Amino acid sequence: MVTWLFKPLYVYLASVVGVTDSTPDSSYVAAVYEHKVILNPHPRVPVSRHDALQHMQKNLDIYEEQAARAAQQGAQILVFPEDGIHGFNFTRLSITSYLETIPDPQEESWNPCMKPERHNNTEVLQRLSCMARRNNLYLVANMPDLQPCPLKTSPTSTCPPDGRWQFNTNVAFRSDGLLVARYHKHNLYFEASCDTPPEPEIITFDTPFAGKFGLFICFDILFHDPTVLLVQRGVRQLIFPTAWMNQLPLLDSIQFQQAFSLGANVTLLAVNIRNDRLIMTGSVFISQTNPHSVSHHLLSPVHKTDIKKLHICSGGNEQNTTLLYSST
């Protein structure tokens, strides 16, 4: 039997860098949850929408518990990992019942918790929205998105043969439940169930406590687009859900994330899936002023939400940030 433990890690920046915050608004409290996802044991077999929802609700039940705990400890923003709600290893067909059509927040203002009737088959979006609203925190999660053809953001793009687009997607909700951001992963890693967006998306959202956050996912971090584009546009707080298999010598998750954060001079909220069999672990809060703020990287049977008080990272632009990345 696995014992579920909650062991919060709450560290003030002042104790790390030896300074005192000059203003009450110079820091914020962030939380990440490294989730041991409950997987579909037969991900390549199509299931009904009812069965897909039953599966996803098991993971969302855990999200609910962790969101409440994070809120109780003052978290202002909470980040969940890539594939944390639905899992992985699906085919293009078998993931169909897990898909929800996520509206573009740049085109439509929608609070799924307050107006659930506006869009059908959006149970996961509704639950995430209500989770953010109930706990009064910003919330970022990852889920699969279905967009019909033609794609509104790129109407001239060639439609996939089955007549729809399927994307690996980050969603962000404001503390009142409003959907504020939707990002489609651009650089896929052996993801047969998903499409590559026609163009890289540069997606950010604003918060009252830390300014602008940018979104990207897992394999994106190895490529110029959208990663370097976000940095060049002055985005200094980045959110990075991932399902990262640690591979030595150069693709250890924390090693790579630390190098990126320090090299780009950004604060990185990185959260990994927890799967010991696949060597998936390692989540960090990392910034130029707090280079050792690593949550954990141990193969131990512990579930926890890590919470830290972080300094707001500001300044820097494309003139003083040099990054060498693969060209897409």
Automatic annotation (TrEMBL):
It comes from Oreochromis aureus (Israeli tilapia). Its EC number is 3.5.1.12. It is an enzyme of class 3 (hydrolase). The keyword Signal applies. The lineage of its organism: Eukaryota, Metazoa, Chordata, Craniata, Vertebrata. One of its GO terms (molecular function) is biotinidase activity. Residues 1-22 form the signal peptide. InterPro entries: Biotinidase-like_euk, Biotinidase/VNN, C-N_Hydrolase, C-N_Hydrolase_sf. Pfam families: CN_hydrolase. Keywords: Glycoprotein, Hydrolase, Signal. Belongs to the carbon-nitrogen hydrolase superfamily. BTD/VNN family. Residues 37-328 form the CN hydrolase domain. This is Biotinidase. Transmembrane segments: none annotated. Gene3D superfamilies: Carbon-nitrogen hydrolase. It catalyses: biocytin + H2O = biotin + L-lysine. Catalytic release of biotin from biocytin, the product of biotin-dependent carboxylases degradation.
